Amino acid sequence: MKQQRGQFGSHLGVLMAIIGSAVGFGNIWRFPYLVGENGGGAFLLLYLGITLVIGLPLMLSEFIIGKTAKSNCVGSFKKLKPKSKWHFIGYISIITGFAILGFYSVIGGWTIFFLVDSITGAATTSTELSSQNFDTFINSAWKPAAISLGFVLTVAAIVLRGVEKGIEKTNKILMPFLAIILVALAINSLTLDGAKQGLTFLFNPDFSAITFNTFLDALGQVFFTLSIGMGVIITYSSYVKNEYNMLKTQLIIITSDTVIALIAGIVIFPAVFTFGLNPSEGPTLAFVVLPTLFAQMSGGAILASLFFLMLFIAAITSAISILEMITAFMVEQYKISRRKAIIFPTIIIATLAVLSALSQSDKYTIEVMGLNFFDFLDALSANYLMTIAALLTIVFVGWKMDKSTVRNAFTSNGKYYTMLFPFIRFMIRYVVPLAIAVIMLSKLNII
Ligand code: PFF
User: Fold this and answer.
1) Cys-Cys link to 354, which of 145, 185, 213, 362 (CB 3.0-4.6 A)?
2) What contacts 24+ positions apart, CB below 8 Å, involve 68-72?
3) Which atom of ligand 1 is nearest to the CA of 386?
4) Are 190 and 36 in contact (CB under 8 A)?
5) Which range marks the domain in which residue 98 is found?
6) Is 259:267 a contact under the CB 8 Å cutoff?
7) pLDDT tens digits, one per residue of 191-225
């Protein structure tokens, strides 16, 4: 018996699910610290440019594949180009998915720990305690490992419920909640003394801080934050009904993702400047700097609880999308039930998460290629695998798929933006692949 494929029930559901995937640590944690390290507003401008010129056509390409093939990240390529090797891209996505979830679940676990600690007030009792708290927690080794395991199982339980009842419903409830918390925190930050300085830093471009490496950072960030080069957008868009206006849907997604990252900056920088800290504090920004700041604010425990709840929501909705990408592959490739299909990926992810949680503590040395396991998974996925998969995917759409098929998908069979199609196709065939290739080659020090 042929299994019925899942489908999102409404356009709002599609938007919430894809925005849920896109909005994650990338926006609330990685984006502000990249801005901090790379000259504030100058990085922002670069980031916006890359999002529009490279991010949008890439996301469109994945959408075109998913919407046309209506299959998982491997099956879609097989359907569109049978008897070729292009489906190999899908396998890269699956490996990337495991790598990302391997470290993402650990950070997901940290948000749970900090959420509970903030609710009880433990995270914000004093500045000294807040800064020690993270170190003590990470080094307790098995505790963060166990909590990240809890995170993985929660994600699996949601994905198990299926596309409409599990994924769509969870995102429809959680994402508006995330937006409300974010805006509330931003309003609070704007009332702080350092608000003006923080905003100036975020929006005033300092072009002298831009180097070639800044381009690489910005490109990597765009891939990561939009969940592209991962097969996730292929998978989610395969559950989208055909009649929706694709470009409009994408623009809403990309704008929301960017606006949320900006608001996260508005939450963080005024607070950082008010308390005289350095804006480029690295990844510990969320788990050390912010709790320290919250400890000095009135209502700090409440603000901290809201912040970590928001971070948890951002994390879980992104993690769901990755596990769904892998599960959809398992279900369709091996023709098994969702229940059976989810077991194997969950075990692998749980193992990777435990290893990377342990690798963060001083007690265990778990290293690959000179990096601790956690950093290795991060670097492997964000720096290499996602970029390679993204490049191959766009080449596939630009050069291997029929022009008419791509056109029909983009315009919903001639209904929308037919005039724009030649321009989009030009971007997909020439501009974006070239830009990615140049950036990749220079990253490898070849040019
Ligand atoms: N977009 C997520 C973030 O910004 O945190 C991370 C992510 C989710 C990357 C899903 C890749 C992915 F497939």
Assistant:
1) 145
2) 68/401, 68/405, 68/408, 68/409, 69/234, 69/238, 70/5, 70/238, 71/238, 71/332, 72/231, 72/234, 72/235, 72/238, 72/325, 72/328, 72/329, 72/331, 72/332, 72/333
3) 11
4) no
5) 11-443
6) no
7) 999 999 999 988 888 888 888 888 888 888 999 99
Give distance in angstroms: CA of 237 to centre of ligand 1.
15
Atom of ligand 1 nearest to the CA of 231: 13
72 token code pair: 């998982």
* Ligand 1 mean position, distance from CA 203 (Å): 25
CB neighbourhood size of 362 (10 A): 9
Average pLDDT value over all residues in the chain = 92
- Lowest model confidence (mean pLDDT) among 7-11, 217-221, 396-400: 217-221
* 271 in a structural domain: yes
Maximal C-alpha separation, the chain = 65
CA nearest neighbour of 293 among 386, 193, 210? 193
Report pLDDT for 206: 84
- pLDDT computed for residue 122 by the predictor: 80
Number of domains in the chain: 1
- Rounded to the nearest 10 degrees, how much is the dihedral formed by the CA atoms of 347, 18, 236, 377? -40
Contact call for residues 120 and 129 (beta carbons, < 8 A): no
230 Cα–ligand 1 center, Å: 9
Residue 77 belongs to domain with CATH number: 1.20.1740.10
Residue 255 lies in a domain: yes
Map tokens 């307790």 to a residue.
140
pLDDT score of 1 more than 50: no
Inter-residue contact 213 to 221 (CB < 8 Å): no
How many angstroms is it from 126 CA to the middle of ligand 1? Answer: 33
6 found inside a domain: no
- Helix H, strand E, coil C: the string for 309-323 is HHHHHHHHHHHHHHH
22 lies in some domain:
yes
Query: Residue 191: what are its φ and ψ, rounded to 5°?
Result: -85, -5
Torsion of CA 104, 105, 109, 114, to 10 degrees: 20
Q: Whose CA is nearest to atom 12 of ligand 1?
A: 227
Query: What whole-number distance in Å separates Cα of residue 428 and Cα of residue 240?
Result: 22
Ligand 1 site, CB within 6 A: 21-22, 24-27, 100, 224-225, 227, 230, 232, 318, 321-322
Nearest partner of 99 among 395, 315, 340, 386, judged by Cα: 386
Cα separation, 292 vs 79, in Å, equals: 53
Closest residue to atom 10 of ligand 1, CA basis:
227
Over range 379-389, report the average pLDDT: 86
Residue nearest to atom 9 of ligand 1 (CA): 227
**pLDDT top residue among 300 and 344:** 344
